[in-house]
Amino acid sequence: MDRDFLTPRESLKSKLWTIINSNKLVVINASRRMGKTTLMRDMTDKPKDGFVPIWIDLQSAEDERGLADNLYSYSRDRIKLFDKSKSKFNKWMCLLSELKLGPVTLPKLNSASWKSLAEMTIDSLISCNKGKIVIFLDELPLLLHKIMVNQNPNSAAEVLNFFRAMGEKNSQRLTLVYAGSLGLHHILNKLNGAIRENPPMVNTAFIYPIPTLEEDEGSVVAKLLFDEEGTEYDDQVLYRIWEHADGVPFYIRQITLSLFGAKHKLTVADVDSIVQKMICDANDLLHIDKDHFLRLQNSDYYENSIRDFVLNILDKVAQADNGKLDEETLYNEVCQTEEERKLFKSIISALEKESFT
């Protein structure tokens, strides 16, 4: 794990362990590049005493079966396939798409319920380990979005309802953590609009927003990198990097790395110059991420009918002094129709959850 990423996040990690200990469902809210995955993987690699964390990467999963297979695959080292009667092994054989025994992989074609495999995996984690099981479901909202688009809203709702049932069944031993760049609230809004009877609920969840780094925290990221490289810099350079990156750890790191190799003591002007170059370079991550926000996030998050309205809100905030604009002023500037006035509060709430404002 990258020390420069994690050092300023130690207090956040400690707080997150406390939240996990007292809640059975936690939703980590943060936009892209905030270090969510790095944080969860570090917590999995170095767990606090009394916890058994499992990080599940769902980015490549396309459906419920992919969810169940990944849940099993990432949990495999923590569970036992055999018992004295061999009954557990036989049950696994009926559920798995493939079974790995040492270097040998035994393929299986089966249509067993994804829920059966997922439930048996979670039950086995609980029975085979002491302490509280913590399952980090990274990019679960993205998977739910895929299921909604490729199948139907009811299938996506079934996933959420399954995990809610598992949480209630194992309330003393299990905490589920949902995380992803695509905000879960967007998925819930769409599901609640599509499913009139018994829509999925996460009203018991503790919503935990991952904040951007404060100036002193962001300076630690850049300083660790510069010190390891042996790069000299003026006093204001660290602040300027943090300012350009808006406190986002990934961008602080990218800007700092781009300044490596200077043959002179770095100045604020050097930082300004490299950032401008990165934004204008179509192959650079700063440019790519800017394009991603405008092209992908808004198309995935907001319906076509309101996307221009959302972008207008963001433009007004971006043009304001220090990127701050009180809600009443913003309301008066962007709301021209009765429909926009009705939309305004719900969209502001969504944007705040995405950390865009």
Model regions low in confidence, pLDDT < 50 over at least 5 residues: 106-111, 290-299
Q: Helical element count? A: 17
CATH superfamily of the largest domain: P-loop containing nucleotide triphosphate hydrolases
Give the mean pLDDT: 78
Lateral arrangement of strands in the main beta sheet: 2-5-6-1-7
Oligomer: single chain
Largest sheet data: 5 strands, parallel
Secondary-structure class: alpha/beta
CATH topology of the largest domain: Rossmann fold
Indicate the CATH architecture of the largest domain. Answer: 3-Layer(aba) Sandwich
Shape call: globular
Topology as a string of helices (H) and strands (E)? HHEHEHHEEHEHHEHEHHHHHHHH
Helicity range? 55-70%
End-to-end gap:
30 Å
Indicate how many domains the architecture comprises.
3
The CATH class label of the largest domain is Alpha Beta
Radius of gyration: 23 Å
Structure description:
The chain has 357 residues and is α/β, with parallel strands linked by helices. The protein folds into three domains: 3-209, P-loop containing nucleotide triphosphate hydrolases (Rossmann fold), CATH 3.40.50.300; 215-285, Helicase, Ruva Protein, domain 3; 302-353. Helix content is 57%, strand content 10%. It contains 17 helices and seven strands. The strands form two sheets. It has a five-stranded parallel sheet, sandwiched between helices. A two-stranded antiparallel sheet has the order 3-4. A hairpin with a 2-residue loop joins strand 3 and strand 4 (104-107). The longest helix is centred in the middle third of the chain and has 17 residues, at 153-169. It starts with a helix and ends with a helix. The relative contact order is 0.12. The model is unreliable at 106-111 and 290-299 (pLDDT under 50).
